[in-house]
Amino acid sequence: MNLSDARLALRDARRVAVLTGAGISAESGIPTFRDAQTGHWARFKPEDLASPDAYYRYPALVWEWYAGRYRDVMAATPNAGHELLARLEREKGDGYFLATQNVDGLHARAGSERLVELHGNLTTARCEVCAHIDALPAPADFVPPPVCSRCGGRMRPNIVWFSEFLPEQALEAASDAFTAADVALIIGTSGVVYPAAGLAFETLERGGTVIEINPDETDLTPRLSFSLRETASRGLAALMDG
Ligand SMILES: [Zn+2]
C-alpha cells in the first residue's frame, strides 16, 4: 500500500479506530515523565511516585508531583494533530473511535468526544471511597488533595499507576472498535506498550487496514499495511489533506 492508497482507504472508511501515544503530545511540548523530573524531583524514579504503594505511604508527596504535571498540561495547548483527529471524528460521526495512552487531556480540549483514556487523565481526580470522578479546579486554585463533591472522601489522581490494571470497560470498547474498524490509525506509540499491538492485530485479522504514523520505525512497522515516517501532525495532514 502507498500513501495515495492509504489516503483513499481512510477517506472511504465507515469505521475508523485510532490509538495515540506520547508522540502526538510531544508537539505540544508536554514534558515526559522523565523530562519533568528535575530539581527536587530528580532523586525520584517514576515508580517512586506513580504507584499505589507510593501513594499509600506518601500521599502529599505524590499529589504534589501530580499537581505539577497538571500545571504543565494546562499550560500546554492541543496541536494540529489533536485538531485533525477532532475533525476526523466530525467527518466519520458514529463510525469513529479514539483511544489514547496519554493522560494530558489534550484530545478532549481539542474537541474529541468519542474518546477513551486508557491510562486516566491528569485533569481529574477519583474518590478513594466512592470512585466518583471530579475535574480538578483551575491550577491557580488547586490545593491538593481534592475532596469528593459527592461524599467528602479523599480523592487520588485519576491515573492508572504501575502495577494497576487498565480500566476494563475502556479496553473492551477499544477492542470492539478495532475489531470492527475498516481503517485503524496507530499514532505516536511504539507498539511495545500494551495494548497497541493487540489492537492493531484485531483490525488486521478482520481484513482491515492499519496505518502507522511515527517518526521512527517501531516493532509493529513490518506487520502493518502502511507506515508514515512523520510526526503526528504532519502524518495526519498528509493522510487527510495531502
Ligand atoms: Zn466520594
From TrEMBL:
Record-linked Gene3D superfamilies: SIR2/SIRT2 'Small Domain (3.30.1600.10), TPP-binding domain (3.40.50.1220)
Record's cofactor remark: Binds 1 zinc ion per subunit.
Binding site for substrate: Y66, R69
GO CC annotation, single: cytoplasm
Binding site for Zn(2+): C127, C130, C148, C151
Entry EC no(s): 2.3.1.286
Catalysed reaction, written as an equation: N(6)-succinyl-L-lysyl-[protein] + NAD(+) + H2O = 2''-O-succinyl-ADP-D-ribose + nicotinamide + L-lysyl-[protein]; N(6)-acetyl-L-lysyl-[protein] + NAD(+) + H2O = 2''-O-acetyl-ADP-D-ribose + nicotinamide + L-lysyl-[protein]
Cofactor: Zn(2+)
Listed GO MF terms: histone deacetylase activity, NAD-dependent; NAD+ binding; protein-malonyllysine demalonylase activity; protein-succinyllysine desuccinylase activity; zinc ion binding
Keyword entries, A-Z: Cytoplasm, Metal-binding, NAD, Transferase, Zinc
Primary enzyme class: transferase
PROSITE patterns attached to this UniProt entry: SIRTUIN
Subcellular location per the Swiss-Prot or TrEMBL entry: Cytoplasm
Chain ranges of the Deacetylase sirtuin-type domain: 1-242
Catalytic residues identified in the record: H119
Chain coiled-coil ranges: none
Entry binding sites for NAD(+): Q101, N102, V103, D104, G188, T189, S190, N214, P215, D216, A232
InterPro entries with a match to the protein in the record: DHS-like_NAD/FAD-binding_dom, NAD-dep_sirtuin_deacylases, Sirtuin, Sirtuin_cat_small_dom_sf, Sirtuin_class_III, Ssirtuin_cat_dom
HAMAP family: Sirtuin_ClassIII (MF_01121)
Domain notes from UniProt: 2 residues (Tyr-66 and Arg-69) present in a large hydrophobic pocket are probably involved in substrate specificity. They are important for desuccinylation activity, but dispensable for deacetylation activity.
Family as reported in the entry's similarity comment: Belongs to the sirtuin family. Class III subfamily.
Function of the protein: NAD-dependent lysine deacetylase and desuccinylase that specifically removes acetyl and succinyl groups on target proteins. Modulates the activities of several proteins which are inactive in their acylated form.
The protein, known as: NAD-dependent protein deacylase
Species for this entry: Deinococcus marmoris
Name of encoding gene: cobB
